[in-house]
Amino acid sequence: MLDRGKIKMEHDCKLHVLPLEAAFEFPEQVPEETAATPKYTQAEKYTISELAGEVDRRMGGADVMVHCIASAPEVQSQLLATSQEGYLAAVRNSSFSMIGMLRQFGPMLSRSDWGAALTLSYAAADRVVPGYGGGMSSAKAALQSDVRTLAWEAGQEWGVRVNCISAGPLASRAAKAIGNRPDGGSRIDQMISWSQQCAPLKRPMLAADVGSTAGFLLSRDAAAITGSTVFVDNGLHVMAPGSVQTV
């Protein structure tokens, strides 16, 4: 179990922690100058294809695959100020990596009785979230669109299900990366405050809510569900701006 970034082993199982640089699907795609940096010289087999091969070798395959990757070098920049390189990096890292991972893990998942893949999105995929910049909103929109197409293709090719969770705002370490508002306040704290004010359910948004939904979507209980984006946000996605009234 993962609790605030710490792994708690509750059962008699063996944990494998393997490196991954999701920007590269194959070793030949890694530029020489990148491979020569300390970050990469200290790791081996870190591309998507190498990771999949290592998982297959060590564990004999996989039943499920979860893609939780979001990275944009210019995430604190408005879209109008984002460079072409920054925009393409956001899409490559955050959405195309899902295609590469499913391409590599799909054959393994097909050997399982209930092979399934899952990815994580955010409200900025279909609504404006100021501060969620650098092309990340576009990357999440692409990701949700790709989930529908991948559900069709992976279902036909391997009998594998593909779904997505769009979670409400959480004060995770990754969320802190979007930075602060012009007045110095935290953007993610503002998003959380707005969510608590506007969402139909007046309860804290918890990481466990996302985890429980993920567990269901990856289980046999969701055998007939694929190509879906499931909102886990206390109902925030159904609300129109300016429509909130205190009851």
Q: How would a textbook summarize the main sheet?
A: 4 strands, parallel
Lateral strand order in the biggest sheet = 3-4-5-6
User: How many E strands?
Assistant: 6
- Unreliable stretches, pLDDT < 50, 5 or more residues? none
Report the span from N to C terminus.
Answer: 38 Å
N-to-C SSE string, H for helix and E for strand: EEHHHEHEHEHHE
| Silhouette | globular
Strand-residue proportion? 5-15%
**Pairing-aware structural class of the strands and helices?**
alpha/beta
Radius of gyration: 19 Å
Amount of helix:
25-40%
Q: Report mean pLDDT, rounded to a whole number.
A: 89
Number of helices: 7
Which key phrases capture this entry?
37% helix; globular; 247 residues; two-stranded antiparallel sheet; alpha/beta; 6 strands
Q: How would you sum up this structure, described in words?
A:
With 247 residues, this protein is α/β, with parallel strands linked by helices. The chain is 37% helix and 11% strand. It is built from seven helices and six strands. The longest helix has 26 residues.
Summarize the structure.
The protein is α/β, with parallel strands linked by helices and 247 residues long.
How does the SSE layout of this entry go?
Layout: E1 2-3, E2 6-7, H1 32-35, H2 38-41, H3 48-59, E3 64-67, H4 84-109, E4 116-122, H5 136-158, E5 161-167, H6 187-198, H7 207-217, E6 229-232
Parallel strand pairs: 3-4, 4-5, 5-6
Antiparallel strand pairs: 1-2
